[in-house]
Amino acid sequence: xxxxxxxxxxxxxxxxxxxxSFQAEGAAHEDGKGDSVMDVRVQxxxxxxxxxxxxxxxxxxxxxxLMKECGLKAYRFSIAWTRIFPNxxxxxxxxxxxxxxxLINELVxxxxxxxxxxxxxxxxxxxxxxxxxxxxxxxxxxxxxxxSFLFRTYGDxxxxxxxxxxxxxxxxxxFRLGLTDDDRHEKERLGFLANHNMCVAxxxxxxxxxxxxEGGKIGPAVCFDMLYPTSNKPEDGxxxxxxxxxxxxxxxxxxxxxxxxxxxxxxxxxxxMYPEFDPSDMEIMKANKPDFIGFNYYASKSISAYPLNxxxxxxDIEFKLLPDKEAGIYQVVKxxxxxxxxxxxxxxxxxxxxxxxxLWDRYHLPLLITENGFGNKETWPEEGIxxxxxxxxxxxxxxxxxxxxxxxxxxxxxxxxWSFTDIVSGHSGFSKRYGFVYVNRTEHDLRDLARxxxxxxxxxxxxxxxxxxxI
Length: 471
Ligand code: BGP
Known about the structure:
Blueprint: E1 14-18, H1 21-24, H2 37-40, H3 56-70, E2 74-78, H4 81-84, H5 94-109, E3 113-119, H6 125-131, H7 138-154, E4 160-165, H8 167-170, H9 184-212, E5 217-223, E6 226-229, H10 234-257, H11 262-270, H12 280-287, E7 293-296, E8 300-306, E9 317-320, E10 322-326, E11 329-333, H13 349-363, E12 367-371, H14 389-407, E13 412-418, E14 437-439, E15 451-453, H15 455-465
Parallel strand pairs: 1-2, 1-13, 2-3, 3-4, 4-5, 5-7, 6-8, 7-12, 12-13
Antiparallel strand pairs: 8-11, 9-10, 10-11, 14-15
Residues 20, 23, 165-166, 223, 296, 371, 375, 418, 425-428, 432 line the site of 6-O-phosphono-beta-D-galactopyranose.
């Protein structure tokens, strides 16, 4: 709604930026680090791998100094599980432990609050080899042991923790689970089994965090696209509701309410994908609620009904990375009202306000926006600095919607842009940049990896300085 006036951001609002270990650090085989599923995946050779990335492992002091100069209040990063436990379990790698101690100390002395993601896609390959990874219940113990080790080691300085990044995506991305089988339906079934085990593991990590970290707060970091019904046809409204339950709410409903929502459960049962488990699992989830909801927001999607016809049957799915058409339920269609990034991600700042309000209404937990950003193709100009006005516009509009949601009563902990420096994109290597700071390398030419401040760096610096008054 349009309000008469708009209240400012609170003084303790965490203005942050985010990254993930495998996308930022590089040093993929240095100082005893073990392989993760991201290191061993087979990918398009035209895209860079994670060997060097933005070389944050060797540039972390410089990067933190730039964060300090920008005025960041928080930095969200993930710990590479295989730097701490190269085999996923067993022996600790002291050099890996030392790296994160140094990084955390550097942040704390720069006055920047660390927000740590325990697991962001880079699952230990050794656990896949040992017992099948997330498909096996042993994975729950190994995750909880690893998380507890982090709480004991860093919990004196780290008070904000995130359990799993984008679990709702991981379960649909077989290679991130270490699965190589070709049968996509079977992979979906296994994905939902992994989902269940991750939910139990995440809830036990919430418990451990509360027991070990004094004043610790912990929550999930899901991906939450806004979905809209494409038209006012009732069947599109119904398809939208189904899609919200089975694409968007299902992980949070397990994390926060300790339940499979009705539509999600029926969806799994109809497709023989509902996992077998002991009812005590749901008690674990119910008893260990997160303290906040972390979510990544990039885009919205438009949803239409997709009724069965003579060529389709229940269980048929078409994928575009994630399920795109679910026979008998819904399909994702292009939203002609929105512009999109070069990669087709529909840009929708209003959608962010909608998501904030939906999540607040459903769960009544404070929100931490763990990622939001604009990916673009960028090259450093011959003269002057990179004028990334599109990014400034994108972030300004999205932040304005956060401010509006706040004015309507939604509680926030903070907001992290994706990303601070350019880092490797999840699917597009170094050709898709998100940072305030340009990293001088290309897909396969490492150049000097020098850091250069883009125009948006100064915009964010000013925004933080005036606590979002310009938003
Ligand atoms: C999120 C992931 C991040 C990051 C981001 C941008 O889904 O949590 O790790 O990759 O998306 O995506 P991409 O790099 O594919 O543009």
